Amino acid sequence: MTDGRITWRIVLGENILDFPVSVFNGLTSSSNEGLLLHVYGWDSDFFPFPVRNRSARARETISKQRERIAEVDLESIKQAIQLEFYSSFQIMQTNFQRLDATRLAHELAEQSLDAEQKKLNAGTNSTFFILRIQSSLAFAELREISAIANYNRSVADFNRLRGVLE
Fold first, then answer.
1. What tens digit of pLDDT does each residue of 98-129 get?
2. Is the pLDDT of residue 41 over 90?
3. C-alpha to C-alpha distance for 58 and 79, rounded to whole angstroms
4. How far apart are alpha carbons 44 and 65 in whole angstroms?
């Protein structure tokens, strides 16, 4: 105690705070901000006690966690969009290949019908085989029309994902 002043040293973690406490004047003169607590045993003497801002740190931690969650959600959405785009492209390619296959099947059914009609004209075939091949040709045409519709639908879906209107 020098000149009626007492120096308080408070150690909190890595922080060491030295500040004078006036026994006779009642309040301290300190530049540290904090909560003023009453020191029992000293009449009307107070000292500033630095209080760590735990609520602000908690809010900061919560906001950082929310930011990480938002980043993960964004990445998940990006991956879902990429997957949908890739899947739509694959479906479009598959439908195009299916369309090619059904066109080829239709052409072969027409060639088969022509060959069977030539055989019928030559007298080596019966109308039963012609009717059967005509039925096959009709189913081949239906499958081709269905393949065209599926391909057009998949192209429209793919363009919708790309944001293109055609």
1. 999 999 999 999 999 999 999 989 888 888 88
2. no
3. 31
4. 45
16 inside domain? yes
Residue 65: inside a domain: no
Give the structural domain span for 45: 5-52
Domain membership of residue 68 (yes or no) is no
Residue 70 lies in a domain: no
Global model pTM greater than 0.70 = no
What is the rounded CA–CA span in Å between residue 128 and residue 125? 8
| Number of independent structural domains in the chain | 2
How many Å apart are CA 26 and CA 35, to the nearest integer?
A: 15
